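re: the backbone from monday

yeah here it is again, tokenized this time
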């Protein structure tokens, strides 16, 4: 069992004008495929060969961590997105979490965009649920980092590596992350919430 390129739930041009087909083609068919191929090459005939990308990123270090985590992060990111006309309202349940954690949706959005803009270099900005407090938090990770290695439940992420937006936005990361908010699959975000015991 090796990692394989996950099927997208939308066409490569379905996120325009937020992300062009050209950006999505490079991002999905080139960047993500390369992370998957490299992971498979690195893990061939090792104990990691039969693990999922999630299991690999929780236990591996170095190049296997980097490539497996990028495979996981990209599949998760692409699942966070949907065409603008397919987005749904945020449910009352998720709204309650957001309001109790940030005060309001607008404050959450402002803080998330600010975190993404200030995430220096290449990395990811995440909305997570802290299982200890049950509150939602915004977390930046660098390079291939993923908050699940810190015991946090990931709900939403945006890729702030330049390859994610440079063809469409050049250096204007804030415009990219602001537009991102109109293409979020909130049903997917909610599906990642830990259910209270
Ligand atoms: Mn990327």
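seq for it, each position gets an aa:
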């Amino acid at each position: 069992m090796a990692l394989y390129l996950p099927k997208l739930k939308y066409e490569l041009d379905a996120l325009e004008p937020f992300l062009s087909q050209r950006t999505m083609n490079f991002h999905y068919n080139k960047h993500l495929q390369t992370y998957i191929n490299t992971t498979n090459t690195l893990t061939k005939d090792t104990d990691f060969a039969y693990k999922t990308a999630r299991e690999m990123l929780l236990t591996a270090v170095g190049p296997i961590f980097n490539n497996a985590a990028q495979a996981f992060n990209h599949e998760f990111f692409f699942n966070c997105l949907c065409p603008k006309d397919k987005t749904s309202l945020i449910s009352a349940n998720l709204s309650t979490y957001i309001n109790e954690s940030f005060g309001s949706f607008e404050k959450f959005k402002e803080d998330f965009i600010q975190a993404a803009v200030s995430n220096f270099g290449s990395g990811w900005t995440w909305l997570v649920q802290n299982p200890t407090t049950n509150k939602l938090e915004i977390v930046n990770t660098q390079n291939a980092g993923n908050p699940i290695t810190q015991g946090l439940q990931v709900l939403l992420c945006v890729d702030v590596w330049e390859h994610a937006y440079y063809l469409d936005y050049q250096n204007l990361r804030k415009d990219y992350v602001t537009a991102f908010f109109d293409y979020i699959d909130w049903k997917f975000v909610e599906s990642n919430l830990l259910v209270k015991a």
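The CA atoms of residues 124 and 159 lie 5 Å apart. The mean pLDDT is 96.
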